[in-house]
Structure formats: structure tokens, C-alpha cells
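Hey, quick one: can you model this chain's 3D structure?
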Amino acid sequence: MLAITPIYAALVGFIFLALSVNVVRARIKHRVSVGDGGEKLVIKAMRAQANCAEYAPITLLLIAMAELQGGPAWLIHLLGALILIGRAIHAYGFGITPQIVPLRKNGMYLTFAVLFVGSLTNLILAFCS
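Sure thing. Here's the predicted structure for all 129 residues.
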């Protein structure tokens, strides 16, 4: 049973919700119904949301699988916290104008760390059980 991962999935879900609302606001502001209308702020809002949509599912899936395989709670919490922090600072650094590039980069580093450690953890747990 999953007890830890749902906490982080819910918190990352709130980040995704905020990014989605930001897309809607940008479209309303620039009167864009479909697509980006060539508006830079709409494109930026859409890419911030899409970036979260691209990385959050696989990282949360890796964390959930590690938890289901009996991975240590401290590691599940660590991976969850890292993806939460990584996605939050990436979204903020990317979404603000002008961008805060160090936040964006560090957010991606944390995301890549979760991808790597989560993948490695799942392999170790699968082969050692």
C-alpha cells in the first residue's frame, strides 16, 4: 500500500493546478482560445505547465514503485521532497519575467536527480528482492 507517495503526488498536483490556472489566465488576458496565438506570455505559461506535465508523472511513478517494493521511508520522503522542491523552483524560475535562470537550472538538477536515483533504486529493489 502507498502511504508516502500520495502526499507528494498531491503537492505536485497543486503545482500543476497553479500552472494550469496560469495558462488560462494568460489565454484570457491575450484572448487566445486555442494554441498560443503567437503571444510570448501564453507560450511561456504553456511551456511551464507542459514541463511539469513531462517530468512529474514519471518521477512520481518511480517513487511509487520504489515505495511499493519496500524502499525505505526516508528515501521515499527524500525523493518526494526533491521532486516537489525541484518542480516548484523550476516553475517559479521559468515562469517569472525576467526568468531566474539559477532557479530553473537547479529545479532541473533536482528533477534529474530524482529520475536517476528513482530509476536506480527501482532496479536495485527489483533485482534484490
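One thing worth noting: The mean pLDDT is 96.
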